[in-house]
From TrEMBL:
Keywords from the named record: Disulfide bond, Membrane, Signal, Transmembrane, Transmembrane helix
Entry's transmembrane regions: 277-299
GO biological process: defense response to Gram-negative bacterium; defense response to Gram-positive bacterium; negative regulation of alpha-beta T cell proliferation; positive regulation of cytokine production involved in immune response; positive regulation of T cell migration
Annotated InterPro entries: TNFR/NGFR_Cys_rich_reg
Listed name of the protein: TNFR-Cys domain-containing protein
Pfam families membership: TNFR_c6
Signal sequence residues: 1-26
TNFR-Cys repeats: 26-60, 62-101
Coiled-coil regions, chain positions: none
Length: 304
């Protein structure tokens, strides 16, 4: 008897559960089940304020600013709009759609969720000696490639440029090009050492020779003035040339000979000639230094 009652109770329970399942399955696509009944969903942009009852329909209210609901729903709260932190807002949040974020210029997205970007990273920069083989986009990073031999790039261009050929432009190579910098050219410099040697040296030799010739001529043809001792009123006696003195002295003009044979002061005729010789040597010495200085400055300007 007890067994029959227990079986009857189980039957009733199963029937109730089956009825509930059938009732859930019978809710429409725009309805939601709550407390064993189907209630109408709230439209996009709104939320449920009160569920339906046997006598009333579902009560809905719009989402507040900063929240949204994209679909028909039976929820009590709207979703919060996404904040595009460190990103750029592509589409503003509305009551029916979330914000759409995208990377800022010069960045690419690391995390795409649906149509919006969650995090971004700055595009890589190419180094000197590389060129941009593929520009970065909002979804991909920049791609770099190395320059080939004889070309250069500072890392900002889409291709490497050939080094300037200085000789082809009638210029002189000052600094060879590298993978990151162009060759440096300057004005073509003539063979200055040849010019200096070919022009200045003859000038120096001519000037020096002229100075020596002048001294020799004064030595050979120069006149000497001597002053007598004693009461003679002649005052000064003038010999016409150095040869005259040499002839009188037998080729040996000394202060003692002049004093013994001419009764005059010792002669200082050599003084002027020596002064001219010293001046000539000084001129030649200075000109030699000028030549050396010019050669150094023209051939290696950095040392001047």
């Amino acid at each position: 008897m007890k067994l029959m009652k227990l079986m009857k109770l189980m039957k009733i329970t199963a029937s109730v559960m089956l009825m509930r399942v059938c009732r859930v399955l019978s809710c429409q696509q725009t309805e939601y089940e709550i407390s064993g009944r189907c209630c109408s969903m709230c439209p996009p942009g709104s939320r449920v304020q009160r569920d339906c009852t046997e006598f009333t329909t579902t009560s809905c209210v719009p989402c507040v600013e900063g929240t949204y609901n994209e679909k028909y729903n039976g929820v009590r709260n709207c979703a919060h709009c996404s904040l595009c932190s460190g990103l750029k807002v592509k589409l503003e949040c509305t009551l029916t759609s979330d914000s759409v974020c995208e990377p800022q210029d010069g960045f690419f997205c690391l995390d795409w969720s649906s149509k919006s970007c969650g995090a971004a990273q700055k595009h890589s920069s190419c180094e000197g000696g590389q060129y941009i083989s593929q520009r970065g986009t909002a979804s991909t990073d920049t791609e770099c490639s190395d320059c080939s031999t004889g070309t250069f790039s500072d890392g900002t261009g889409m291709s490497c440029q050939p080094h300037t050929q200085c000789e082809a432009e009638n210029l002189q190579l000052i600094e060879a090009g590298t993978s990151s910098a162009d060759a440096r050219c300057g004005e073509q410099r003539q063979n200055v050492s040849g010019i200096v040697i070919g022009v200045l040296v003859p000038v120096v030799l001519i000037v020096g020779a002229a100075a020596v010739c002048e001294c020799v001529c004064e030595w050979v043809n120069g006149s000497v003035t001597v002053k007598r001792f004693g009461p003679s009123k002649e005052g000064r006696k003038r010999y016409t040339s150095i040869q005259h003195l040499h002839a009188q002295s037998g080729g040996c003009v000394t202060a003692g000979w002049v004093g013994a044979h001419t009764q005059v002061h010792p002669v200082h005729y050599i003084t002027d000639t020596h002064a001219h010789l010293h001046l000539s040597v000084l001129i030649l010495y200075c000109m030699c230094w000028v030549i050396v200085f010019c050669l150094v400055c023209f051939c290696s300007p950095s040392t001047c």
